[in-house]
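Encode chain A's predicted structure.
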Amino acid sequence: MKSVIFIRIAAVLTFIHAVLHTVGGVFGKADPGPAAVAVAAMKANQFLLMGNLRTYWDFYFGMGLGVTISLTTESIVLWFLASLVHTHSEKLRPILLTFAFGYLTFAVNSYFNFFLAPVIVETLIALCLIAAAVTMQKSTMASPVPLTRAS
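Encoded structure for chain A:
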């Protein structure tokens, strides 16, 4: 039961991360001064790329929205995975550890390129997933009986 709670906590933290990323990052406003000047420059300069006129702002905004979409999707997947703990723990453990590794590398990226808040949240998500994998017990589902021919 502990592992289910850890996975659900990770799912909720991931969803909160998605919401705050959207509000503060994707739709947030730049502070007056150098940040606003940089945003204005990103929006002002268009260039042709693969037959489309784009700006650096289009890429910045689109990638930010892409991260929001990914985080939201991951939160939903984690929520669903929690329901598989009791029946498929052996198969679930490597999936959770893969997500944990991803969130730890996400935290390292955030440390070097962003700021402390996402580092803390991403580390907490990874720790919850590791705790779930460690506390997970063997599945209670009976192993399938192979079909054999009657002799």
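Residues 2-135 form one domain.
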